[in-house]
């Protein structure tokens, strides 16, 4: 099963999001890698790297990010991985993308399918 | 020559300069960013000094460890950017016999890594606008490089950065309003170069 890593500048946002995703699909591994190593506002490549290593059960990991240094640190985290992992950063809104991703991951879909569902969430209309 | 001890002095000097200018870096970042650059850089360089590799005779190993400390302690976008600069440069420098021209080529690899990491280029009002012109001059001067070369070029670059319109990070939200204001990252990069100049001076090669 594909796992998720959540990266937000605000550790409260990724923590709350994880809780919401755990309720939706309890069997999917979701790791909250928001905030800095000290739990402050920000992001950390090392924290994201550790999360990827812990999350991967062999079917791959999708990383959901907010903006700015989240993307930069997620890319750096992937470069820092010592063993090979299938990891993709979804070009998707954090909350909506993560929700779509966790549903598909729970249905046993592949990494590419999970990433694609997250990316689709970007185009979802909220107001008709 | 650029020795491991000079590399350590460079980082200690940088940490001192950044700490004594912490408030200025924070103030600059409050105008165009989120106001944490002074604090983040001080924390990062303090950790880099505490975790300095005091054992090795290889400058590359010193700089690589500095990159790792900065990456994990600065936070924000400056962590992966300065982390990349020092890690890439450190990886590039081999052995104990390192010339100034080797340092220049290693910093070239470092700054290219930063550009890639930040998807940034020149004239976007970032640390690249300070570092790259200085590194180009270092490449040109080779082993003839002096501290005066470094300072003159860094000062000139700092003046140019101020006039650019921000294209990266939170500063980009200010668009043309960012013109005439200094970029906090370029300012902290200036202190790194100024510190390197101090180290070259002390070494008597200047």
What brief labels describe this structure?
heterodimer; A: 128 residues; alpha/beta; Rossmann fold; four-stranded parallel sheet; 47% helix; globular; B: 206 residues; mainly alpha; Serine Threonine Protein Phosphatase 5, Tetratricopeptide repeat; 69% helix
Which bin fits the share of residues in helices of chain B? 55-70%
Task: Determine the CATH topology of chain A.
Answer: Rossmann fold
Tell me how many strands of chain A there are: 4
Mean pLDDT score of chain B: 94
For the termini of chain B, the CA-CA separation is 12 Å
The CATH architecture name of chain B reads Alpha Horseshoe
CATH topology of chain B: Serine Threonine Protein Phosphatase 5, Tetratricopeptide repeat
Q: Which structural class should the secondary elements of chain A be placed in?
A: alpha/beta
Low-confidence stretches of chain A: none
Helix percentage range of chain A: 40-55%
Classify the beta-strand content of chain B into a percent band. Answer: under 5%
How many beta-strand elements of chain B? 0
Characterize the biggest β-sheet of chain B: none
Tally of individual helices of chain A: 5
**Which CATH architecture of chain A would you pick?**
3-Layer(aba) Sandwich
Element order of chain B: H for helix, E for strand: HHHHHHHHH
CATH class of chain B: Mainly Alpha
What number of domains of chain B? 1
CATH superfamily of chain B: DhaL domain
Q: Considering the protein shown, what is the CATH homologous superfamily of chain A?
A: Phosphotransferase system, mannose-type IIA component
Largest two-chain interface: A-B, 15 and 17 residues
